[in-house]
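Human: Here is a favour to ask of a fellow structure person. Comparing notes only helps if you start from a blank page. I am asking you to supply a protein in sequence and structure-token form. Write it directly below this note and I will take it from there.

Assistant:
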Amino acid sequence: MGRKKVYGMTLMLMCLCSVASGLSFGREPKTVLTTLCFFRFWLGFGIGGDYPLSATIMSEYANKKTRGAFIAAVFAMQGFGILAGGIFAIIISATFQASFKAPAYEVDALGSTVPQADYVWRIILMVGALPALLTYYWRMKMPETARYTALVAKNVKQATADMEKVMQVDIGTEQKEPTISANTAVKSSNEFGLFTKQFVSRHGLHLLGTTSTWFLLDIAYYSQNLFQKDIFSAIGWIPAAKTMNAIEEVYKIARAQTLIALCSTVPGYWFTVFLIDRIGRFTIQLLGFSMMTIFMFALAIPYDHWTHRSNHIGFIVLYSLTFFFANFGPNATTFVVPAEIFPARLRSTCHGISAASGKLGAMVGAFGFLYLAQPQDKTKADAGYPAGIGVRNSLIVLGVVNLLGTFFTFLVPESKGKSLEEMSRENDDPTEAGAEVENHSSDNGTVPV
């Protein structure tokens, strides 16, 4: 269907489902939750399309010298989104908390979920659609990428016209009519499909590398994100949930998470942007996984030391560094690399498979950590509650997961300073006339567009 068309469809799906999530309805709490899950599923469907398209479109527009920085910058904007979301949650929860003046006995009778809390989560979910909706106009004004038009749609003339429009230059009529070799290159890129023998021999290990590293990263990364509040409560940085009403809990958790994002998450993203085309993707990913492993073990092994109030700041610093090296590391590079190393026809698809394996890791991390982080309490286990291995041992498990990510990084090739065609071996196939394309020449491995 093309990058541009699906890009617009995924955006509208995300915006509509964000608003619909906030309007989740039902007479009973279970019905509301069921409706919410339905809309969040389709929101995820839209995000699942947006991930590979954002990376692929930028990779196909950028030049090989600055391509890594441009793709990483697209992903780094997520950091500002995290900050904006956290700040907005703080403002909304503080506003509603100030307006809630129920006496203490009424709060006890209501439990932790005060009536105003129902408005808080709905507003926060719906407002997320507004900044995304603002990008729709520019997405629709953007032409289809020249590589898709030439290599997949096989319309070199239209690709040239689109390039002239984007670059605001006249490429010249002599290049609008492709030579035989150019036509041959366009055709050869489409001769094998996904999971064919030729694909597996060329890119099988690459796909294993991108899927496994993204899977392992997200086990650790989403566990940390989703259960920050449990870790912060365990070390006493924020009060236990049972001592706060729901709005107060949103405020304090959002404040803690926003501080982490400001001091570590956002700087980590932009370190990647500035250094990825200097030191390379492989080095950044290897460094990130290694440092995350070290800091996880540094938190877990002397865990009892960090639980003392006087040591909370040290724990928060080390914990923040794991987020810094996740983003100045595999959380950014796993997004960048799949958009560079696969052939044009399968580029978005392989990136989507890699991202999907990451979200599978997120599911494993979410449910796994939910179980593992439960206290080792035999009384709770006898009462039917899950008895986990505690926060300390959970951090050790996440450290091992990051260590595995370090090893699987060696399956991912370095793409710094190389063209997309050079990385994907786009023109390695024989020509129609039976002449072989010279595999060892980087010049012949570059599509004219």
Q: What stands out?
A: Residues 103-110, 173-186, 383-387, 430-449 have pLDDT under 50 and may be disordered. The chain has 22 helices and no strands. The CA atoms of residues 97 and 247 lie 6 Å apart. The radius of gyration is 25 Å.
